[in-house]
Amino acid sequence: MTQQRGGKGAGAVLGAATVATGLVAGVWFAYVCSVMPALARSDDRVFAEVMRDINEVIQNPLFFSVFFGAPLLTAVAAWQYRATRTRIWTFAGLALSVAVFLVTSAANVPLNDALAAADDVSAARDAFEGPWVAWNIVRAVLSTAGFVCLLGAFAARNRPRD
Questions:
Q1: How confident is the model over 37-56, as pLDDT tens digits?
Q2: Are 150 and 89 in contact (CB under 8 A)?
Q3: Half-sphere exposure of 100 (CA within 13 A, CB side)
Q4: CA angle 143, 149, 105 (to 5 degrees)
Q5: What is the DSSP-derived secondary structure letter of residue 9?
Q6: Which of 29, 30, 86, 103 suits 39 as a labelling partner, its CA being 20 to 30 A distant?
Q7: Which is more confident, 148 or 9?
Q8: Distance between CA atoms of residues 122 and 131, nearest Å
């Protein structure tokens, strides 16, 4: 039975990875459907000020525990389920979680940093808004797909043996 289930505690790790991934997906989704459309209505100064504030405030232990916890917990789950029928789902979830981390690190964070350092908020907004929104949509889709994969892992884990 252990071989099918991923070992002792594997369900808890998979559950925590799924919750963390879902929370991350929810953050990016909130930007897609509310934060960025609302800010798009703002003038350049307000846009830059609010995004700077958000990018500063989001750097906190609670967000970081979920943001970094999602790929770490998913990696542990993938390892625990590596020899089970759940491995495809957990490894897919891991690949997507790592992709979210990479997109955030390579695209969104550098854009945040450039906005924070800019003196000309109008030019900074022009360089920031379109690319940041596009990359945020990418990470929203990737993290949602990762969440779905981890839900698939649960379904495969709990399906009776043929």
A1: 999 999 999 999 999 999 99
A2: yes
A3: 34
A4: 25
A5: T
A6: 103
A7: 148
A8: 15
> Is the pLDDT score of 1 beyond 50?
no
Following CA atoms 141, 142, 143, 146 in sequence, which dihedral angle do they give, to the nearest 10 degrees?
120
For the segment 9-36, the average pLDDT, to the nearest whole number, is 96
Rounded-to-integer distance, Cα 41 and Cα 10, Å? 46
Helix (H/G/I), strand (E/B), else coil: 119: coil
Q: CA-to-CA distance for 4 and 2, rounded, in angstroms? A: 5
CB 129 within 8 A of CB 46: no
- What is d(CA 70, CA 73) in angstroms, rounded to the nearest whole number? 5
d(CA 157, CA 116): 45
